[in-house]
Design a protein that fits this description.
By secondary structure, this protein is an alpha/beta fold. It contains 13 helices and 14 strands.
């Protein structure tokens, strides 16, 4: 076991996979000579050469289009979107081409492609460097959408994504990159796609979250246990699509109370789907209404620090208050 932060876990896992599989091509804006905006690939251009570490133009639709072509011809491309906010010009390539390749060919073709995209706020990135995009793409059949919250899951899920025969959107919350550390096992272990993880066991209520918000929930749950003796079970979704409804429903049926917490705009967010699933499948096991906490429904993350902080709600204090009220219902 080695102590790492999230960005180091991603870098090390991808580097080791590239070293062991010559099919892997890493491509994106500034990933070559500069080593990427988050310094993921420093030194890789010299190590792997310019046929496997490719600086691309500022054209995301072209980047993903070329990656799809590579995937269809025996390579295993990893396309980095510099910031998740920049992915939208590639929407048609991802949704209409990559995600539908297996379906439209009746299973004759697959598209083994991993798209890495740093997402989320809290780093003073303002309108075009802070977006959460999981709800847009989690809606698309044929496309897997992952968002790890810990270094161990980041490395394990990335390896699983590289072994998946279909396209995977791999979201990395920027706030976790250097703020979240944890023990990472040695070796090329795999974290299964589509399986949630119970990060904290509890009996009184269930909190479901993912990404950086998960850590705010864990902080609030620890405080609630210390202050009020309330036992909270905290589930890390890890996989937006496919969603592990079994783990979530088992927990909710045990505790009888559920809260869903996510950073993205509250309306039509991924948390809405989770809440709807709980309501459909476990309504008669519930002792209280489902609580859903999400970001405000405003167009973008503000630049001003105070407004950015307000957008990043729910903060631990708000989560704590909502959890306490739910526990007393």
């Amino acid at each position: 076991m080695v102590l790492k932060n999230v960005v180091t876990a991603v870098r090390d896992a991808l580097h080791d996979e590239m070293a062991s599989d010559e099919r892997i091509v890493f491509m994106g804006e500034d990933v070559g000579a500069r080593g990427g905006v988050f310094r993921i690939s420093v030194g890789w251009l010299e190590e792997f050469g310019d046929r496997r570490v490719i600086d691309t133009p500022l054209a995301e639709s072209g980047l993903i289009g070329v990656a799809i072509g590579m995937a269809l011809n025996g390579l295993l491309p990893v396309a980095e979107i510099e910031f998740a906010d920049f992915i939208h010009p590639a929407f048609d390539q991802i949704v209409s081409e990559a995600a539908r390749m297996r379906y439209r060919s009746n299973g004759d073709f697959s598209c083994p492609l991993v798209i890495r995209a740093p997402c989320g706020g809290g780093v003073h990135g303002a309108l075009y460097h802070s977006q959460n995009i999981e709800a847009f793409y989690g809606h698309v059949p044929g496309l897997k959408v992952l968002m790890p919250s810990t270094p161990q899951d980041a490395a394990g899920l990335l390896r699983s994504a590289l072994r998946d025969p279909d396209p995977v959107l791999f979201l990395e919350h920027k706030k976790t990159y250097r703020a979240v550390t944890g023990e990472v096992p040695d070796g090329a272990y795999l974290t299964p796609i589509g399986v949630a993880d119970v990060k904290r066991r509890g009996e009184d209520l269930t909190v479901v979250s993912y990404g950086y918000s998960l850590h705010l929930c864990l902080e609030a749950a620890d405080r609630l246990a210390e202050d009020e003796g309330v036992s909270t079970e905290v589930i890390d979704v890890r996989s937006i699509n496919p969603l592990d409804t079994g783990t979530i429903l088992d927990s909710v049926r045990k505790t009888g109370k559920a809260m869903v917490v996510y950073e993205d705009n509250r309306t039509y967010g991924a948390g809405a789907e989770i809440a709807a699933t709980i309501a459909e499948e476990a309504m008669f096991d519930m002792d209280a209404p489902i609580v859903r906490l999400g970001g405000p429904d405003v167009p973008a993350m503000p630049f001003a620090e105070a407004l950015e902080h307000a957008f990043m709600e729910p903060e631990p204090d708000q989560i704590y208050r909502e959890m306490l009220e739910l526990s007393r219902f």
